[in-house]
């Protein structure tokens, strides 16, 4: 295109919105450049992420926060002037002049001057030690001043103020205060009750909160000493950060004669046009729909509107949803729709749990049909779903409280993501609707999150919509009548359960046999361990024999847990956590001899870290000599059966839990399963062995034992559910046999029992029917299969120690087997050692 | 003349190990001139490969202990630590564009495995 015909666009302001405008305008010029872009910025650095400014105190550098490096502007032909604000607009000549005297003509001018911190006119605000929280420079000042301060305060308990208060804590101040004029924190987002819950959470972190405080003056000579409030009270502080709101930067527009709002801001219409049609204003400097949008998302939408209009496209800035969800100093806070509407204009349902620090409020229409808005503090997991329900005016279920409490028994509340209308905005960062996503999934075959990311950019922004998108994929596929099969990978088009049956019927013993008969290609790191697990679960042969070593996952391959630096940890089995002094001594001797770090595990065993791969057989030879066996800490198999001391010593114990734990651990040790299995046996209802957090747990009663299944610790803790009560030992073991074997035969790879049960159609009642009532008539078979595994147990480490061929594989260098990996390095720590930190 | 000689980089072949030192369809590590090299016997395809033993992701000497397999037709190895996978042919990381490992030619004669180093 001829340069003479190119339009000149000048952007005043290189903040987040100004930058986004450039990015969007560039992206829209698919047929080569049509604009010459010039950008003026007042700050010395290119646009950076002001939303995550606090991260600067947590180790992020200015570079990390940068939205695009300076080279990006050059590469895209943008002329960028930094530290050079525009000081004059000549609207007649259509040109701008900068502080340094640069004069640039424009066809269109985009004002993205943003906002500055609003500093109330309080006596003493000019004193040393008073700061605002707006730019990286502000943060640098705060950081260096904080080194000699002990007590700090933030004026303003809004979103940014609380961020700043957290920063004071992070900077190591002894006292950090928050002073808020209103009677609650975050007055624009949450109500009094929500503020109360938030306040308790913040106070537990050490913040001191002062509400309804009117600051009268800042005391001290040249330097701040404290603040005095209108009620006469005083607060001693060494530094103060003012975060009392924002003030739109409209001074340039005003001096150019553009219409501004009496309370600040450049007045624009729905097309972001100012009183001069060649001049636009976007972001926090603009007053649109009679208000200032103080969030980044609507600012980006304004950038989109102006970029579209310059390209000749029809686009209008519509009232923007101000719902927000954020993690504030570890506490989730969400506010959506109209959070404050009150009765009789609505019916309000609230839930408060002081112990957990959770507050939830929803406002529903008087006829009970629509969700008008709400507030979530402490637990905002339902935010996305509630926001969608609210925005799309979805008809509510009869028991609207299920929306925040979760359904108690029966089906999931609401219709879920599939119940939303087609135009529901699923990804608000990229403005992608449900219909668009359904089309990509259903018509274009993008059936994974990764594929949808590439096709639509959904989930690439904040990522908050990912769970919804996942549900949508499942929903669409189900709707299309697809039976959703969780097949292993590109090489084996079977579910784990299908493959297990095939391998069993055909008596296959090696990976190659399985792949030759039922798969294609050469296998991979997904199907190899899955098949390895199936083979082990069915035949219980040594996992390293018959070419099976190389299909084992990292840890199983060397029968030890690989750790940072490439050394391994060793866990001998200590059934039920019971161990003799002599055996303890041997563990200590071995650890000393091979220079191992020792630690007690969560499962009542001892973990020995830092073993070279070549030392593993010798370590085990010594452990086995005194009667230890493999603890299978490396395997997807039974780990440990934790026990409390029970009736042999404990004055409360009603049964001998240790003896039963040892019996259970010896019965199921070494059995390979879809994922690891943990268990516990408690000697009474006090539950010291925490059996209800295990895959299967046993608790003693006066009459026998209660059996619980499907518990889990980890990131999603879940209590186990009662499967049978007051049963004797034999019945208990019989049920465990059936339960475990049913799990081994039907679960997907790497699925814990809890997840397996959560996904099971019919849930616990169905499982009970299969395991206890034997409705499928498979109980005998399950018990027989389990008995085979029990009877064929061999300690796999003993087999390796006794087998020179297998033993030979435990060397780092095959051409110099006696040499250890020279790159392995340790650091010392509390009289022991640790792995050297990796980069 | 000098330039010509420099251009024609000679490959030096080093005896690395015996064929049966490397597990079938798996890998083993050898030390050659102080350099750790992973050798893979891709028996299913009748192929041999050699790469750096170090995974560039966390600089761990572990690729020889990884599982091998294929992605489409591309032979690959997965690092035991975080399952970054690398093409055995080109050394390109297949699930993270930012990483690359070196590959080396392999020759097998009389039960001996040789690695070519430039």
TrEMBL record, chain A:
Ranges of residues in domain Nitrite/sulphite reductase 4Fe-4S: 635-760
InterPro entries linked to this entry: BFD-like_2Fe2S-bd_dom (IPR007419), BFD-like_2Fe2S-bd_dom_sf (IPR041854), FAD/NAD-bd_sf (IPR036188), FAD/NAD-binding_dom (IPR023753), FAD/NAD-linked_Rdtase_dimer_sf (IPR016156), NasD-like (IPR052034), NiRdtase/SiRdtase_haem-b_fer (IPR005117), Nit/Sulf_reduc_fer-like_dom_sf (IPR036136)
Lineage: superkingdom: Bacteria
Domain BFD-like [2Fe-2S]-binding: 425-474
Positions with a binding annotation for [4Fe-4S] cluster: 644, 650, 684, 688
FAD/NAD(P)-binding domain sequence ranges: 7-290
Keyword check for Methyltransferase: no
GO biological process per UniProt: nitrate assimilation
Pfam families registered for this protein in UniProt: Fer2_BFD, NIR_SIR, NIR_SIR_ferr, Pyr_redox_2, Rubredoxin_C
Cofactor binding, note field: Binds 1 siroheme per subunit. Binds 1 [4Fe-4S] cluster per subunit.
Residues of the NADH-rubredoxin oxidoreductase C-terminal domain: 323-393
Pathway, per record: Nitrogen metabolism; nitrate reduction (assimilation)
Required cofactor names: siroheme; FAD; [2Fe-2S] cluster; [4Fe-4S] cluster
GO MF: 2 iron, 2 sulfur cluster binding; 4 iron, 4 sulfur cluster binding; flavin adenine dinucleotide binding; heme binding; metal ion binding; NADP binding; nitrite reductase activity
Binding-site residues for siroheme, renumbered to this chain: 688
Stored CDD domains: NirB_Fer2_BFD-like_2
NCBIfam families on file: nitri_red_nirB, PRK14989.1
Family affiliation: Belongs to the nitrite and sulfite reductase 4Fe-4S domain family.
Protein name: Nitrite reductase large subunit
From TrEMBL, chain B:
Single GO BP term: nitrate assimilation
Pfam families named in the record: Rieske_2
Family annotation (InterPro entries): NasD-like, Rieske-like_NirD, Rieske_2Fe-2S, Rieske_2Fe-2S_sf
Keywords, ordered alphabetically: 2Fe-2S, Heme, Iron, Iron-sulfur, Metal-binding, Nitrate assimilation, Oxidoreductase
Top-level taxonomic group: Bacteria
Domain Rieske: from-to ranges: 13-115
CDD domains given in the database record: Rieske_NirD
MF GO annotations: 2 iron, 2 sulfur cluster binding; metal ion binding; nitrite reductase [NAD(P)H] activity
Name of the protein in question: Nitrite reductase small subunit NirD
Native source organism of the sequence: Larkinella rosea
Gene: nirD
């Amino acid at each position: 295109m001829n340069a003479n015909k190119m339009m000149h666009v000048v952007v005043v302001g290189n903040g987040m919105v100004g930058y986004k405008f450039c990015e969007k305008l560039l992206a829209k010029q698919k047929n080569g450049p049509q604009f010459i872009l010039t950008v003026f910025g007042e700050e010395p650095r290119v646009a950076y992420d002001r939303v995550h400014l606090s991260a600067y105190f947590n180790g992020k550098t200015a570079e990390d926060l940068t939205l695009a490096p300076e080279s990006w502007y050059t590469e895209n032909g943008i002329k960028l002037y930094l530290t050079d604000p525009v000081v004059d607009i000549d609207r007649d000549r259509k040109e701008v002049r900068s502080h340094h005297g640069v004069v640039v003509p424009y066809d269109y001018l985009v004002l993205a001057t943003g906002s500055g911190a609003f500093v109330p006119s309080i006596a003493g605000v000019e004193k040393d030690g008073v700061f605002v929280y707006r730019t990286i420079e502000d943060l640098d000042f705060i950081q260096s001043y904080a080194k000699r301060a002990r007590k700090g305060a933030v004026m303003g308990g809004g979103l940014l103020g609380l961020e700043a208060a957290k920063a004071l804590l992070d900077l190591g101040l002894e006292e950090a205060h928050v002073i808020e004029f209103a009677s609650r924190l975050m007055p624009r987002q949450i109500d009094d009750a929500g503020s109360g819950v938030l306040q308790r959470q913040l106070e537990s972190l050490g913040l001191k909160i002062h509400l309804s405080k009117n600051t009268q003056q800042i005391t001290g000579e040249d330097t701040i000493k404290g603040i005095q409030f209108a009620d006469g009270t005083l607060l001693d502080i060494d530094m103060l950060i003012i975060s009392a709101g924002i003030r739109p930067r409209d001074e340039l527009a005003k001096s150019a004669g553009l219409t501004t709002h009496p309370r600040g801001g450049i007045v624009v219409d729905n097309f972001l046009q100012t009183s001069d049609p060649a001049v636009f204003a976007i972001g926090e400097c603009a007053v649109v729909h009679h208000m200032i949008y103080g969030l980044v998302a609507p600012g980006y939408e304004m950038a989109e509107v102006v970029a579209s209009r310059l390209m000749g496209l029809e686009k209008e800035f519509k009232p923007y949803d101000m719902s927000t969800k954020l993690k504030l100093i570890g506490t989730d806070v969400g506010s959506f729709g109209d959070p404050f509407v009150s009765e009789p204009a609505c019916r309000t349902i609230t839930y408060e749990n002081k112990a957990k620090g959770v507050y939830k409020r929803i406002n529903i229409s008087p006829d009970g049909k629509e969700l008008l808005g709400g507030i979530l503090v402490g637990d905002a997991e339902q935010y996305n779903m509630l926001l969608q329900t609210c925005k799309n005016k979805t008809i509510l279920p009869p028991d609207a409280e299920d929306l925040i409490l979760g359904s108690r028994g029966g089906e999931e509340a609401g219709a879920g993501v599939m119940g939303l209308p087609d135009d529901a905005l699923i990804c608000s960062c990229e403005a992608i609707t449900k219909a668009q996503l359904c089309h990509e999934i259903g018509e274009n075959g993008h059936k994974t999150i990764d594929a949808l990311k590439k096709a639509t950019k959904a989930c690439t922004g904040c990522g908050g919509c990912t769970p919804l998108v996942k549900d949508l994929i499942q929903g669409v596929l189900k709707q299309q009548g697809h039976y959703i099969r969780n097949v292993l990978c590109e090489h084996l088009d079977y579910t784990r359960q299908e493959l297990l049956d095939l391998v069993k019927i055909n008596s296959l013993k090696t990976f190659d046999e399985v792949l030759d008969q039922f798969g294609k290609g050469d296998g991979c790191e997904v199907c190899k361990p899955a098949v390895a697990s199936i083979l082990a679960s069915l035949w219980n042969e040594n996992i390293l024999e018959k070419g099976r070593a190389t299909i084992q996952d990292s840890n199983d391959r060397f029968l030890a847990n690989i750790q940072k630096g490439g050394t391994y940890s060793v866990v001998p089995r200590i059934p039920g956590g019971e161990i003799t002094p002599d055996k303890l001594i041997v563990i200590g001797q071995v650890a000393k001899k091979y220079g191992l770090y020792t630690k007690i595990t969560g499962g009542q065993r001892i973990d020995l870290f830092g073993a070279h791969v070549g030392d593993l057989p010798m370590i085990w030879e010594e452990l086995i000599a005194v009667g230890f066996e493999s603890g299978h800490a490396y395997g997807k198999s039974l780990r440990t059966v934790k026990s409390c001391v029970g009736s042999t010593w404990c004055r409360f114990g009603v049964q001998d839990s240790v003896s039963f734990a040892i019996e259970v651990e010896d019965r199921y040790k070494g059995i390979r399963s879809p994922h690891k299995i943990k268990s516990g046996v408690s000697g009474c209802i006090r539950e010291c062995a925490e059996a209800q957090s295990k895959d299967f747990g046993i608790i003693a009663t006066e009459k026998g034992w209660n059996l619980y299944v499907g518990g889990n610790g980890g990131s999603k803790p879940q209590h186990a559910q009662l499967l049978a009560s007051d049963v004797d030992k034999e019945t208990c073991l019989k049920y465990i046999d059936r339960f475990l074997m049913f799990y081994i035969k039907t679960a997907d790879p790497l699925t814990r029992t809890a997840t397996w049960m959560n996904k099971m159609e019919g849930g616990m009642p169905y499982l009970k029917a299969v395991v206890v009532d034997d409705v499928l008539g498979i109980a005998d078979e399950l018990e027989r299969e389990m008995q085979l595994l029990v009877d064929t147990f061999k300690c796999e480490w003993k087999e390796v120690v006794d087998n020179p061929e297998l033993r030979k594989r435990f060397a780092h260098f095959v051409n110099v087997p006696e040499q250890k990996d020279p790159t392995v390095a340790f650091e010392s720590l509390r009289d022991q050692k640790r792995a050297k930190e990796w980069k | 003349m000098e330039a010509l000689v420099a251009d024609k980089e000679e490959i030096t072949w080093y005896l690395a190990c015996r064929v049966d030192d490397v597990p079938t369809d798996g890998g083993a590590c050898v030390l050659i001139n102080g350099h750790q090299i992973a050798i893979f016997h891709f028996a299913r395809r009748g192929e041999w490969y050699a790469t750096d033993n170090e995974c560039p992701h966390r600089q761990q000497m572990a690729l020889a202990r990884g599982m091998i397999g294929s992605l489409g037709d591309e032979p690959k190895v997965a690092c035991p630590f975080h399952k970054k996978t690398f093409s055995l042919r080109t050394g390109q990381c297949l699930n993270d564009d930012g990483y690359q490992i070196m590959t080396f030619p392999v020759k097998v004669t009389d039960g001996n495995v040789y690695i070519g180093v430039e």
